[in-house]
Amino acid sequence: MTFTAPKKSIQFLLNHSVDIGAILDAPAFEDVSRELIGDILQGAADFAENKWAPTNWDGDQNPATLKDDNVYSSPGFKEAYQDFVEAAWLSLATPVDIGGMGLPQVVKAGADEMFYAANMALGLCPMLTSSAAKAIHAHASDELKAKYLPKMVTGEWTGAMCLTEPQAGSDLGPVRTKAVENGDGTYAISGQKIYITWGDHDVADNIIHLVLARLPDAPEGSKGISLFLCPKMFVDDDGNLGERNGFKPIGLEHKLGIHGSPTCTMEFESAKGWLVGEENRGLACMFTMMNEARLFVGVQGVAIGERAYQAALGYAHERVQGKTITGQETIIGHPDIRRNLIDMKTRLLGARAICMATAAAGDLAVHAEDDDVRKAAHIREALLTPLAKSYGSDTGVAVSSVGVQIHGGMGFVEETGAAQHYRDSRIAPIYEGTNGIQAMDLVGRKLRRDGGEGMQALIADLENILALAKKSKLDLSVCIQALTDGIQTVKTATAIMLNADEGDALSGATPYLNLTAQVISGAYIIRAVANGAAAGDELTDNMASLARYHALSVMPQAGSQLEFLRGGQKAVFDFPMAQLVDL
After folding, report:
1. How far apart are CA 522 and CA 166, in angstroms?
2. At the N or C end, where does the chain have fewer CB atoms within 10 A?
3. Quick check: is 358 in a domain?
4. Is there a domain that residue 221 lies in?
5. What pLDDT was estimated at residue 73?
6. SS3 content of the chain, % helix, strand, coil (to 5)
């Protein structure tokens, strides 16, 4: 169950698929060099392999436990998390002015993929902390920021977000948790929250919860929700910890996967909280946290898929079964095993490229000097985020499933670890907004709201990549043909979705997301190959081989979904609802 961080693949995409030069030209990164980035990624790889990966299996087999209102983490997790804090990995992309290292987010995406692959359950803790700190930095008062941000930035204190309730999941409008003013600038928070990831634990001394609650006489629905900061332990003006706040975990979920991540039911009983942002504007504040989290859930999908791929590759080199046509003794000599492995590797590479492109757009949206560049990057980041989350997480599930298949019967038993990767991967398409919701967001908000302007700009970039491939000294004829067809598919699909009524558009939202991701992922690999060849990168031939496989196997799948989009909602709703159980 060893793990080798895919730093070469990450570095290649960073150097040749995203425009790292444009990012490093921003004043905020004037002290960041490519050499420094390489050192950071190497350090992350070493840490992931040696510090976190060894704890993964114990976390699955020995889940967190709840005793006397306290959650105790899986064996080795506390020590592994403290190592993470001491190495300052949490603050990679946090701005320097609040105590971070100030590196680009795209570098954090590469490093975090290694951490998630090493131990996805443990990796959720710093992911939520980073996102919570971002929301506090953006929306909280100066007093709250001064008190809580410094130790959240370092990871000494962790963060959690309390959104979901039994009756309020994807739709947060029905939130019932109440907030009542105490008369001293604080609020009494009462209610129950469920599915709170790392809601309680012992790996850090304090946990800063961001809680959605409703003030008296607040408007109904999502427009009447406010956001509150509720620390587990009170903090005095000198930063010392005091008494425990009025909330506690009352249950731990027994889950399909990520066993080492404590998923809590939290009971708030007049817990003291502080308002973050404006009254009744809590959902807007929380989306600052959720949007970042959605990108990194996509990264998680790629990460767990990578871990599953490596396990399958290792097993294929060891397992002897049948006579192979290639002369190898082990099953890696069987064509179907080899096909499955290259398919896994290629799909992961494409999903990784989308995640890194999303992170890179986020860097330019914040740090580019030119206003027009920032605006265009912001639109691109918003457009790519649902693709990164959905395609990354769906790819993780698909690849992990194939990993079980390659293991054969041994994949269906626990001792190989293949089953754990499959189980762990399955949560990523669900949390931080299900992938169906991501598709609705892509079509409803990101595509149709601006009349397709953002997508047309992305299509123009795909055409630029096509032109780049045609100029390459490599033989990319297979890729050129597939991308030519793929661009036309995206154009046709986009026109269909822009002209469809709401029912047809929403019925086709997921197929539309998938087909665009299949084409975009291939294009981003092709761009990396063409740029890598121009730069004389010695790994370009290997990357070109994967690009050709993607062009033959993945990108052509996009066109098969056009007829479904043309059919609209009739294909979905034509069958009588009353007869869904049978004919």
Report:
1. 40
2. C
3. no
4. yes
5. 98
6. 60, 15, 25
Give the per-residue pLDDT at 292. 87
**pLDDT value of position 222:** 84
Fill in the amino acid letter for 549.
Y
Within the chain, which residues score under 70 in pLDDT?
1
Q: What is the pTM of this model?
A: 0.97
Element (H, E) at 266: strand 263-276
Task: Tell me, yes or no, whether 135 and 179 share the same domain.
Answer: no
Same domain, 35 and 113: yes
> Which residue range(s) make up the domain with 163?
159-280
| Secondary structure tally for the chain: helices H, strands E | 20, 11
Q: What local confidence, expressed as pLDDT, does residue 289 receive?
A: 81
Rounded to whole angstroms, the Cα distance separating 111 from 494 reads: 34
Pair (565, 456) in one structural domain:
yes
The verdict on 95 and 180 lying in the same domain is: no
- Angle at CA 20, nearest 5°, toward 520 and 470? 50
Q: Is residue 258 within 8 Å of 304, Cβ to Cβ?
A: no
Q: Find out whether 34 and 24 touch, Cβ atoms under 8 Å.
A: yes
Residue 437's pLDDT is what? 96
Confirm whether 293 is domain-assigned.
Answer: no
* Residues belonging to the active site: 432
Sequence-ordered list of residues with C-beta below 8 angstroms from that of 450, at least 6 positions apart, any chain: 379
Residues 244 and 196 both lie in one domain: yes
Contact between 396 and 296 under an 8 Å Cβ cutoff? The reply is no
pLDDT at 205: 97
* Number of residues in the chain: 583
Letter for the amino acid at 333?
Answer: G
* Number of structural domains the chain divides into: 3
**Nearest-CA neighbor of 290 among 386, 213, 374?**
386
* β pairing state of 70-72 and 187-197: unpaired
Tokens for 117, please give them.
Answer: 């692959």
Q: Residue 517: what pLDDT?
A: 98
